[in-house]
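[Backbone geometry]
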Amino acid sequence: MTKIEDGAVVLFQGDSITDCGRNRETGADLGRGYALIASALFASKYPEKQVHFINRGISGNRVMDLQQRWQEDCLDLKPTWVSIYIGINDTWRRYDRNDSTSVEAFAEGYRELIVRTKETLDAKLILVEPFVLPVPEDRKRWREDLDPKINAVRELAREFETLYVPLDGLFAAASVKAPPAYWAPDGVHPSPAGHALIANAWLEAVQA
């Protein structure tokens, strides 16, 4: 039986992978990615639960951006579940803008999001780890920056006993069955198949 209760309010938070082209003018739009797929599959399986899903992912966001908008885009919405998927831009900006985020700053900011959520809401948390695939070739360099951040997310999940979605390993395993570009053409943004992979892993985490 799924962990998500009747009448739950589930908030998806993150960057472009969560955002995925959602219409910001309407608060109800879930975008075209894993948030839409996961919520649609969940709703079809548990119609009697009447769970309400919200997407507040914003393209380009890093942990510091989530911190700045957490009151308005999380706490004020009073979700009973908060799914956080952030981190790839904290790595990417080091390589395209020479604007790096240390693993310490990343972990500290992420921890603050969790603590604020737990102190303000009686909400359960789902942490989704970032991933990167080696397409194009330069993405391989990113591992030195991203791997410690993935470990930081895993440590936070352990510490706060949250649910966890281990995407980096899942995408690596999937890339044995089909080339990395099949799952994420630029190594970061998932293809439709990649979004389905995330959605299924997310549903597995909530035992749906």
The two ends are 7 Å apart (CA to CA).
